[in-house]
Design goal:
mainly alpha; WH_DNA-bd_sf (chains A, B); DNA-binding transcription factor activity (chains A, B); DNA-binding; Rrf2 family protein (chains A, B); homodimer
Chain lengths: 158, 158
DNA sequence: GACGGGGTACTCGGATAGAGCTTGTCCGAGTTAGCGTGG
DNA sequence: CCACGCTAACTCGGACAAGCTCTATCCGAGTACCCCGTC
């Protein structure tokens, strides 16, 4: 059970995008060069963010990606879901159906108590992710590293 | 990011084992037949539980697996960790090290604010798992399906 | 000098290979129970 | 009848393949800009 590495890249890229003017688009190549990441693969992740409505993409010269909405309205949950998909990590395969007393008509994803317990844990995880926004991270980074915004903006636009 | 399917099997198998006498060992084949699972593969998962000290294993005739300690002392976290390993799903690869101002001496798994945010979410997940024991599930199953204990015990011992 | 059209360079986007993990299977080492034999 | 040793069957345990997801890459479709020619 390991998370897609693109989640980390996407999170950092979104935070970095908060520091560039909203009317400037940043190319995938430039975002990738920032952390020496494979450009084509990062592009793939950014495409997923665009499909999810988190980023907007523009083709051609002066094209690239930009945030589709304000950082306060982008949660970590949004980004994780965009990259990883909406399915839970724990998938109830309803093995109770094959056991003694198993009823084919019952939806064991809702009835099975093991599934419910795992679901509660996953819900706690999602709740924590949904409670944090890109703006929160941006603010804490600015507090800890005051030079980061300007340095990042320069590196991404020049 | 999908969890090993063996986690589901292990959870159900542990709950089922709570209903057989502590001095009776149940073979992997019998536990697998209960839900029509591939026996050899379930055996693999049970081995992991044994290595983690959750089950004890016995070889030879009359051998098999049994719970190593009381269900109250076995949390869902124990089982998930035994199967999935101790690593977090989100792995900070410390990409900040490659970025501008990156310092090779800094441990970014502790410093990176993105990593911290993801860590908090994962901690909430683990906390929820650690707060639930096999005994809790056993109790709620018994409340919902009073016939389950006897039926399971019979099926696993005869 | 101003305007329009074509070419060109640049960007995203999806289709296409390769690596690593999950899933599934198999046979061997070790152990216990049962049986046969001898006292 | 009882004790002992041997055999044989049974179980776990780890080593060995197949499928699938994640990782990585490449080239084509689309677009905005820029240059050139014309009015």
């Amino acid at each position: 059970m390991k998370m897609n590495e693109g989640v980390e890249w996407a999170l950092h890229s979104c935070v970095n995008l908060t520091w560039v003017d909203g009317d400037r688009a940043v190319t995938a190549a430039r975002l990738a060069a920032f952390y020496e990441l494979p450009a084509a693969y990062l592009n793939k992740q950014l495409q997923a963010l665009a499909r999810a409505g988190i980023l907007t993409s523009t083709s051609g010269p002066k094209g690239g990606f930009r945030l589709a909405r304000s950082p306060e309205r982008i949660t970590l949950m949004d980004i994780v879901t965009a990259i990883e998909g909406p399915e839970d990590a724990f998938r109830c395969t309803e093995i109770l159906r094959k056991g003694p007393g198993g009823d084919p008509a019952v939806d064991y994803r809702a009835q099975c108590l093991v599934s419910q317990a795992m679901g509660r844990a996953e819900l706690a995880w999602r709740r924590e992710l949904a409670g944090q926004t890109i703006a929160d991270i941006k603010a804490s980074v600015e507090a800890a590293y005051p030079e980061a915004p300007e340095r990042t903006r320069k590196r991404l636009t020049e």
